[in-house]
Amino acid sequence: MKSNFHLLFYIRKQKNYKGGAMPIYMRITVNGKRADMSAPLKPIWRLQ
To answer: Between the CA atoms of 36, 13, 19 and 42, what dihedral angle is there, to the nearest 10 degrees?
Structure first.
């Protein structure tokens, strides 16, 4: 049986963002079923 696997990392900016580091989130998709979670990574850059 063949299965599809996708891994996506993204930054989710909060509504009340005032600057500084933002958390990195990760989305895992296997055969069309998604799971979102906070990635155990620390950002090395800051967005303004």
So the answer is: 20
Contact between 30 and 3 (Cβ < 8 Å): yes
Rounded CA-CA distance 41/25 in Å is 9
DSSP conformational letter for 20: B
pTM above 0.85, yes or no: no
- Report whether 25 contacts 36 (CB < 8 A): yes
* Spatial separation of the C-alpha atoms in residues 21 and 48, rounded to whole Å: 9
